[in-house]
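Whether sequence alone determines local backbone shape is best considered at the level of individual chains. When preparing material for the folding task, we compiled for one chain both its residues and its backbone structure tokens. No coordinates are needed to read the tokens, only the vocabulary itself. For completeness, the protein is quoted in full, as a sequence line and a line of structure tokens:
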Amino acid sequence: MTDPGWLVNADPAQVWAGLDCAVGAEEVLVAAVYRASMRVHKYAAPGVRRQLLALDAARYGAPELAAELAAAEAGDEPDADWRVEWASGSLLGSAHTNASTLSADKRATWATSSLFRPEDISVLGGYYPDEVAVVATAAVGGRTLALVTLTGSNSLRGKLVQVWDVATGRPVGEPLTGHTDTVRAVATAMVDGRPVAITGSDDKTVRMWDLTTGRPVGEPLTGHTGWASAVATATVDGRPVAITGSWDETVRMWDLTTGRPVGEPLTGHTGGVLAVATATVDGRPVAITGGHDKTVRVWDLTTGQPVGEALTGHTSQVRGVATAMVDDHTVAVTGSWDRTVRVWDLAGGRQIGVPPARYDEKLGMVVDGRPEALGAMVVNGRPVTFPGSGGEALIGEHVGKPVAGHTEPVRAIATAELDGRLIAVISDGPESVGENVRAWDLNTGRQLWGPVTDRRGASVATAVLDGRPVAVILSGSDEVVRVRDLATGEQLRKFPTNGRGGQALATAVLDGRPVVVTGWPEVWDLTTGEQIHELKGPGDAVLSLAVEALDDRHLGAATGAIDDGEAVTEAKKRTVVVAGVFGDACGSVWAWDLATGEQVGEPFEEAPGWPEGVSTVAVVVVDGRAAAAYGGALEGMCSLTTGEELDEEDYFGRGEAVKALTTTVINGRSVLISGSKNGTVRMWDVAKREQIGRPLAFPMPVSAVEVAPDGRLVVGFGPEIAVLARH
């Protein structure tokens, strides 16, 4: 297991079979590294697997292991062109699982999103998911099956459940369909000797399915007046039952043999019931529920009465509940959006402490991210809980030394030099939440400062102001430009823009003074905060900006007098601003002269109304003329002077949802670098119009790419960052 060549080249099914047998710190680390991105590399060629394993070793803070994996032979494939220097590991340790089961011999079986690749999931009637949302497992006919609910952007909206064979990673039968809204919860049970699944949905119903035939069992269970958001199963008085929690603030119990409710709804929560688990305490079956009211409650399923008082301590909604045995005590483990996991003694009705590091008597076990759900199981004889959606696995000790950092998907990256060090300023998060901006030392992988919250929609750039390097941050919510000292993060100044939308940001030097271009678009003096130009044109918000110094020859705007075949007039230097637009002019690319504010050439307007607009742009020179590379809902290149599309089929692989673009020079060649939603980074020789080498693979969508002044590549994928250098 510690042989890098075997890990890179062996059949992944063979390696997977041995991961649970890992013993000792070295093997446990290797097993964790192999699991981290297995959903991607289990189907990949050895060269791709080598690169991903090295990346994940770096994410676990194991540079020696990363170097050994990167140096391993991968069949007859050449050595890698790029090697990872370091990477953050904010998500590592999380199994991303919402449920688990313990088989009769007490060995844990579970399913995680890493078992499934997007290519397999996409076969469900053209349904392409954004994430695996709910997982439960069952044993059927000697096979371990996983029941997966998917969320996505098309009309199905997660209304189905697909059954998968865990051993093969392949779907079993047709999806379970019938719910008319998103499926929020899945559980399994045995009813009359048949394995069944029980699902809860936003359509307020609970349904039961025969896992042998894939057919519904009986009529939908109705009674909830809000979303059925949580499901668990138990045996009460010899009968299999389902316990469901709802946004109607009630907990209900259902006899799975008859399909009828058992007793009256259990009431006491003052907010929606978001999580349910079951256990046996002192020989009696109980349900443990977590709610939007920040409380945890225990219910005697035989009497239908609450057990003791509500368990309090969480400071935000409780999203996950799991149970386990610890030192012969039945405990409940709860995860909350307060970013803590707490452990409760169910017999004593009190919070207890456990050995894992980062435990605080007051806060509980602090995790990175907001746990959406919890699973619990036994691994190597130890009770383990897995917070889903970005939490860490709390196993008594941490695996490796991952560097925690961003907690939301990386949004923007900017780099600069500071006292001989290279610094990256990075913002994270979707537009709907407060964003964190952090500064990283690219040499050491240490965080210099942050997080600082500059409201939502933050874009970042760097500049030099009064002789000192600074970070420039544009907030999308209040549309204020903030300038922070690059060394300390201290805010030096701020000034408002005109507040008309547009979250793009770029910096430049105009007549010796630093300026910033914001996304209406407008040009501002960074020293005084005064507006210099409003760049007239689309009249819509700008999603992306690029600034490039060119001359008139490259722009194609002038040729000059010709003498013996050569131009005798010196071309005028011009700084050009290129913008990708969102709004009524979605799908357009515009350009302006930064000095005059005048429009350059004709805009490119391929398909107004694209839902994502042009989310990223870069300036390149093609056949001696300036062009814009653009990405978003569609990808391509266009002339800055004529507005015509160029080389339609030659770049980006077409249809890969390019989210980030940047340019650099490699071995004297002009190179365009693209990052895509499918988790790849590709490099393109602009002059030859061809891809350079293999794509770099990442386990999550790539949302930002930037080249540092020394040529190293900084990549944002999900909430993680990686720094790579050419080999």
In short: The chain has eight helices and 58 strands. The chain has a mean pLDDT of 80. The radius of gyration is 28 Å.
